[in-house]
Amino acid sequence: MSEPGRARWRRAARSPLFLGACLALAALVGAGLLADFVAPYSPTAVDAPQVFRGPSASHPFGTDRFGRDVLSRILFGIRVSLGIAGASILAAVGVGGVLGLLAGLGRAVDQLLGRVMDVFFAFPPILLAIGVAAVLGAGPGVAVVAIATVYAPFFFRVVRASVLAESAQVYVEAAEALGAGRAAVLVRHILPNALSPVIVQTAVCLSYAILIESALSYLGVGVQPPAPSWGAILNEGKEFLALAPWVSLFPGGAIVLAVLAFNIIGDGLRDALDPRAEVR
To answer: Where are the beta strands (DSSP E) in the chain?
Structure first.
């Protein structure tokens, strides 16, 4: 790594916001992975005498209408919400990235793929996700497909733009002059230089994927009860906001924390990976 690149990484690492976001995200992921050990109760255990108990020592985040511990449901919900968001963005990166590379094969392929992606961009992301989920049915797998369908075109455009920009560089002309085929140039030379914007876009899209997954579960076309998705927990508490606001308040706070952490990390990665960023 060049000295300016190391300087940008050092500047990002010294940012309190970036470090705080990384720690918050690490804590969320760790809590989700260790939910079986750190959650005080089963996320689906019904306890009728404990219905709508407020936050206390035995139930730090209170209980819901079935007496289930809200903290335990949020901890297990990390696996569901972050797992679906991560799987969907991984699929979107794979599909969109491959199609973006294929767009560099020639003008005809570029125009064809570009017009197909324009069809997806014609729909608002949340409406497109709801439409896909409504057609395929409800469930975690469907939520992954729906969110991946929404964000694959974003990664297509990011990779395509990088391919077009790098194709005009001298090293690409030199590789082609030495007899390298177009596909080999794309994979060996252009792809490594297109990874930086993809990494930044991945962090940003993860935050939006969490929001869409929560929205799908909230609307009943994503993860189905009694599975502890953050969106499903919000939906279960919406009718009792005046009686038991903690049922929706705490999962909403978890969503805000995760989305904010991914956005701050995305900003930090952009500053660290962008060679045009000012180094002080």
So the answer is: none
Q: pLDDT tens-digit profile of 239-268?
A: 888 889 999 999 999 999 999 999 999 888
pLDDT value at residue 9: 62
Query: Does residue 280 fall inside a structural domain?
Result: no
Q: What is the mean pLDDT of the chain?
A: 86
- Total domain count for the chain? 1
27 to 30, 81, 133, 254, 260: CA distances (angstroms) = 5, 15, 31, 12, 14
User: Phi then psi for 171, rounded to 5 degrees?
Assistant: -65, -30
Helix axes 125-136, 195-219, angle to 10 degrees: 60
* Residue 216 belongs to domain spanning: 3-43+58-273
What CATH number is attached to the domain comprising 117? 1.10.3720.10
Per-residue pLDDT for 127 more than 60? yes
Asked if residue 49 belongs to a domain, the reply is: no
* pLDDT the model gives residue 262: 93
Is 278 within the bounds of a domain?
Answer: no
Instruction: Check whether 166 has a pLDDT greater than 80.
Output: no
Q: What is the C-alpha separation between 112 and 196, in angstroms, rounded?
A: 26
Which tokens sit at 202?
């991945």
Q: Give me the sign of the Cα torsion angle 80, 85, 86, 92.
A: positive
Burial class (CB in 10 A: 0-12, 13-18, 19+), 73: buried
SS3 call for 212: helix
Distance CA 25, CA 10 (A): 20
pLDDT value at 210 more than 90? yes
> Does the residue 53 lie in any domain?
no
